[in-house]
């Protein structure tokens, strides 16, 4: 699957020939409880700018996308981080 359309103008200096980031390089932030990700809760997640995401959709995104998860403490600050790809994190 292509991330862009090929240019057929034939110009050597065509700006469409520049290397661009792939379409799968999109980044978005989903807020969810760990219990939702674990499947022990059906609390929905939240996608800022969009709204509520059903729990199963949150789990599907976490399972199928490259994820980097953060633990946010009660004060709203990041309390832990997992740089691994995929599900799960350690609040440390």
Strand arrangement across the biggest beta sheet: 1-2
**Number of alpha- plus pi-helical segments:** 2
Shape: elongated
- Broad structural category: alpha+beta
Q: Report the strand count.
A: 4
Which percent bin holds the helix content? 10-25%
Secondary-structure element string: HEEHEE
Gyration radius (Cα, Å) is 18 Å
Low-confidence stretches: 83-92
- Spatial gap, N to C terminus: 40 Å
Global mean pLDDT: 75
Biggest β-sheet strands, sense, barrel: 2 strands, antiparallel
Bin the strand percentage.
15-25%
Oligomer: single chain
Account of the 3D structure:
With 92 residues, the chain is α+β, with helices and mostly antiparallel strands. The chain has a domain at 26-82. It is built from two helices and four strands, in the order αββαββ. The strands form two sheets. Strands 1-2 form a two-stranded antiparallel ribbon. A hairpin with a 3-residue loop joins strand 1 (45-47) and strand 2 (51-53).
Set out the fold topology.
Elements: H1 34-38, E1 45-47, E2 51-53, H2 55-64, E3 69-72, E4 78-82
Antiparallel strand pairs: 1-2, 3-4
């Amino acid at each position: 699957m292509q991330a862009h359309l090929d240019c057929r103008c034939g110009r050597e200096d065509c700006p469409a020939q520049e290397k661009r980031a792939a379409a799968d390089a999109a980044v978005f932030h989903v807020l969810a409880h760990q219990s939702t990700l674990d499947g022990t809760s059906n609390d929905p997640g939240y996608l800022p700018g969009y709204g509520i995401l059903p729990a199963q959709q949150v789990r599907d995104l976490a399972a199928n996308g490259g994820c980097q998860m953060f633990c946010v403490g009660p004060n709203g600050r990041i309390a832990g981080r997992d740089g691994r790809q995929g599900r799960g994190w350690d609040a440390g």
